[in-house]
């Protein structure tokens, strides 16, 4: 009995890796300028601090929501000029990718896609707060992901070593 070539091709396509961006959206956005209007009288040489975090959740079999959270704090001396918090999110279709490759995709590749949208939203809200434009420098999410993996491995090795000492 001959195998149906179309059915075989269908099975091959199901096993191939697929990736698609389905939606990008702002999940949460906050802007505060607690010391305005006094801060507008200061010479504008702020110290800008950026905190970022990523998270992902499985929405369905092949869909994941990835959320890039950024907090930007600009201070002049000890006065907070502004704080911007954003959760830039996206829904991604990912199939045929598992294990470490899936982790890399969700932890580094997807945030790299989301970052320019978050950067643009932050710049816009900062301008609307009557502050000079803020263009955040690009972020190497691959390096951040690799550092997080290494930290987890070191913590796991440390915990394993501590367990061996107690036995």
UniProtKB/TrEMBL annotation:
The keyword Cell membrane does not apply. One of the proteins required for the normal export of preproteins out of the cell cytoplasm. It is a molecular chaperone that binds to a subset of precursor proteins, maintaining them in a translocation-competent state. It also specifically binds to its receptor SecA. PANTHER family: PROTEIN-EXPORT PROTEIN SECB, PTHR36918. InterPro entries: SecB (IPR003708), SecB-like_sf (IPR035958). It is found in: Cytoplasm. It comes from Marinobacter xiaoshiensis. Pfam families: SecB. Keywords: Chaperone, Cytoplasm, Protein transport, Translocation, Transport. HAMAP family: SecB (MF_00821). This is Protein-export protein SecB. Belongs to the SecB family. Coiled coil: none annotated. Its main location: cytoplasm. Homotetramer, a dimer of dimers. One homotetramer interacts with 1 SecA dimer.
């Amino acid at each position: 009995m001959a195998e149906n070539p179309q059915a075989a091709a269908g099975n091959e396509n199901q096993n191939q890796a697929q990736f698609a961006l389905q939606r990008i959206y702002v999940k949460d956005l906050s802007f505060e300028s607690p010391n305005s209007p006094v801060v507008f009288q200061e010479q504008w040489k702020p110290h800008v601090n950026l905190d970022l975090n990523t998270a992902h959740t499985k929405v369905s079999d092949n869909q994941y929501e990835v959320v890039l959270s950024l907090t930007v704090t600009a201070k002049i001396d000890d006065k907070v000029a502004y704080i911007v918090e954003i959760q830039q999110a996206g829904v991604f279709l990912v199939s045929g990718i598992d294990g470490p490759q899936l982790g890399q995709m969700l932890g580094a590749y997807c945030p790299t896609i989301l970052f320019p949208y978050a950067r643009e939203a932050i710049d816009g809200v900062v301008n609307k707060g009557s502050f000079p434009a803020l263009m955040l420098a690009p972020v190497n999410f691959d390096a951040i992901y690799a550092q997080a993996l290494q930290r987890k491995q070191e913590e796991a090795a440390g915990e394993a070593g501590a367990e061996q000492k107690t036995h």
